[in-house]
Sequence to fold (323 residues):
Amino acid sequence: MTANTRILRPDHDGVAEAARFIRAGQLVAMPTETVYGLAADATDGEAVARIFAAKGRPSFNPLIVHVPDLAAASELGGFDDTARRLAERFWPGPLTLVVPRAPGCPVTELATAGLDTIALRAPSHPVARALLAAAGRPLAAPSANRSGHVSATTATHVAADLEGRVAAILDGGVAPHGIESTIVGFDGDDVVLLRPGAISVEVIEAIVEHPLRRRSTGESRPNAPGQLTSHYAPRASLRLHATHAEPGEALLAFGPACHSTGMIVNLSPAGNLVAAAANLFSSLRCLDAAGVERVAVMPIPAEGLGTAINDRLHRAAAPKSIE
Ligand code: TXA
Ligand code: MG
Fold:
């Protein structure tokens, strides 16, 4: 993917170089106060697709979007009084808030896995903050490790997992907390603990003034309706591995489109998996918005990002009672 990974010093020049990579749609591993993050421009669908490719993730999980402060966060998500109070008390710092996506939010749908919510956090680490300032973009960043490996807390750990898969690693030494951020979401008046982490529940409860509801992010649990992390499911029914579209079906194409008399949405006319991943959620939404009921989906190669794309399409094609 990326032949040589540059190890950058966390000084002015190193951060400027890292910001150039980010603005060019490349990946940069950055230190944060929790663990190292694998950062990309959150507004660039193909850059975010490269995160999933580099991690070797077989599915699209929503990512945390990093911002400098509450003002920047408020352009991306909706903050009610409680969310605002938590941000004002704990930002910058290791608390992630899952809030509704703001209308016109420029973050690519791939970063939020098509959800109507967005996970936001303002990190306190000076190198992460310097990169956010220099890049001038919100940064989507999961932990900088290969899928299934533990989170990386040093640049050496990052390199062991991601050498040759990222443009650069900003070496900021040891990540101080060594454990991920605490994630909370909001459900009516309830504040819901989605992942325990660097900020303790008791400290958050003291600000919220009532107990947090416990609920796991359900990374490996089946989706249930109403679950905060439930994945975006299109209304239309999908027929996979289609060689043509039947009358009455729309076509979701990949590469040169096969025969169809109906609406055609192409994930990537060039047959590029990075582009297809970047377009996946917006394409499904586009078909739903057009009121399409049945969609024929052309085969997607089961390699690289194709595995994650197929995972999403299979779930979308499953009977709706299971979703
Ligand atoms: O400390 C951290 O949080 C680190 C540093 C780099 O910031 N990042 C991190 O990211 O741990 P990651 O991708 O490894 O974990 C993100 C978690 C996932 O469990 C994901 O399901 C959850 O955040 N998440 C993201 N967006 C969400 C959303 N809209 N709703 C519910 N959960 C969400
Ligand atoms: Mg992780």
